[in-house]
Amino acid sequence: METYFSEVISSYARIRGKHKKDFSIPFWDVIVLTAMDDEQKAVYDKQLKYKYEREELPFDVPIHVTADPPGPKIGNGGSTFVSLQFLYDLYSERLFDFRVLLIHAGGQSQRMPSASVLGKIFSPIPKGKHSMYEMLDIKLATFCPLIPKMCPGIFVTCADDFLVYTLGNNHEGIEFASEGFTALAHPSTLEVGVGHGVYVFDKVDLIDPRIPLQRCNCHRVLQKPSIEIMIKNGAVLENENMNFAEGIKIEGKAAYTDSSFFFAHDVTKLMLNFLKSNGPIQGEIDAYGDFLQALGPGSTNEYTSNMANVSACTPKLKETRDCIYTLLKGTPLVLMVMNASKFIHIGTTKEYIEHFCCDAEFQEELGLGKDVFNMWAEWPSGDKLNERCHGDEAPPIKKFRLSDTSLGCVMHSRLPLSSFVARTAVVEYCKFLIPVTVGQNCILSNCEFTSLSASEMKHLGISDEDLPKECISIPPNVFMHTVPVQLCNETQFVTVFFDLKENLKKSTNSDDIQNLPFLGKVISDFARVTNANILSDAPDLSDGKSKVNLWFSSLFPAAATPSQSFILALFCINALKTDDDSVVSLEGKSLFSMASLLKTKDVHEMLKKRNDLYQDIKHGFC
């Protein structure tokens, strides 16, 4: 499987920056990324422009970005309807001759805040020699071997997962259905099934787990079922500790779970007619829960009343879900059973570290590295280093790579060679001119420390003695990410910081904000040691009670430069961890929450600084 999938990625690499007439592999006719609003759409369009300029994308294949309309959330199911209408308005009847890749990429990425500003689909992947791969590149590459098996239609996938697989040697006659839906099915533990869609087969005894790819009919789909419901509906395979193709083994009981799916253009026409008759989607519709659960001869409409996974119950939601069930009921669902496959989700900070730092098998299968597109340099020490921290930047003495150290994952960054990155830490898009030591279970994203003048230190309330000169130390279990913002028509910088284990979405009553867990303590401790006035931007009123969480809590100070912002955040972290109220004061400073950052973010500045870093590293290779 490793050899096969490595060739899948390599084949795609050969068409990056090439025109369609020179493609050596089958590819999509049209690609669509969904965005949660017009602002996120603009962010995506800007990043696509950069990728085209760097020849990081295939040419002559249009990539469109569609934005959800203003108002209540419509979910990725609603985004699917919006995208189909956009495509039909643009291409008219020609659409029905196209094979379209639809990537659902909207959302705030609350479980992976480093992707909140620029989007999960543009998250870095530790792969690439002359520039970084991003999640978009992996998505464009992954499904190329399946394209010849598809008739014209829409292939739907999400922006925060990987699929590693092989089709085996005898798969030429196995094709996607020419009508209705076709879904990919993967062997999984029952614990994985609880959080995903689970397939119930018409005739499960016809499935041979040793064959890499098979096609069968689906009886019904269960969405995030309990283990008891899986067993009751016959979704659980009989044998335990089963061996599947290519050496894949599932400990304990197993079931087949979902990932991506396809529908032919007969379904596209159904959905377009639905919009024509009913108008825009009203409510939060899930492409997996509301489309797939309606399919197969065993489907029922019980799920349309289950609002457990809906963030906001709008007045017409139940009615809309019932209408979609009626629309799709009876539509066949064919399964491409991929016994030689692994579905890997990477949408949380924990998963990010696990797969990029610890999962050697996954890294080998995708050809990932630990030291990718970086500039390592030996810098002066002692008095010369002290001068550097307070003044002009001098050129590096010599350049190296850090590949032999087998430490953490570092990508698209510029660091002194004597830096230390722990085995379970990720550093991305960072620039440090003095050595940095990064502790276990850390993520540093978009952070910078180059220099601070005496006047800057005085403005921050930091003494010269306290400023790190020989090395910057990042304590373990910390997430740090710097975001440029527009404040009073000026660009300033905010570095957010959390404990890696903290759930930013976990709510409490608004009058109990002081007891929210934060960096191993509680917010009242942070307010006390930093003299900060902690407020909540927008309480959650979804259940009628005013609630707050870390996402909406104004904790993070703004500063004039990235270096000021980073060092101020680091001093805040150390003040709380040491319970020392003399380290730093946030009195009178503008404080931001993650929610307010997304409203005031300066995307132009963020992309400019990232591109400047790209040019620095690129020139360092010359």
Automatic annotation (TrEMBL):
<dbReference type="Pfam" id="PF07959">
    <property type="entry name" value="Fucose_pyrophosphorylase"/>
</dbReference>
<keyword id="KW-0808">Transferase</keyword>
<dbReference type="GO" id="GO:0042350">
    <property type="term" value="P:GDP-L-fucose biosynthetic process"/>
</dbReference>
<dbReference type="GO" id="GO:0016772">
    <property type="term" value="F:transferase activity, transferring phosphorus-containing groups"/>
</dbReference>
<dbReference type="InterPro" id="IPR012887">
    <property type="entry name" value="GDP_fucose_pyrophosphorylase"/>
</dbReference>
<feature type="domain" description="GDP-fucose pyrophosphorylase">
    <location>
        <begin position="93"/>
        <end position="558"/>
    </location>
</feature>
<protein>
    <recommendedName>
        <fullName>GDP-fucose pyrophosphorylase domain-containing protein</fullName>
    </recommendedName>
</protein>
<keyword id="KW-0547">Nucleotide-binding</keyword>
<dbReference type="GO" id="GO:0000166">
    <property type="term" value="F:nucleotide binding"/>
</dbReference>
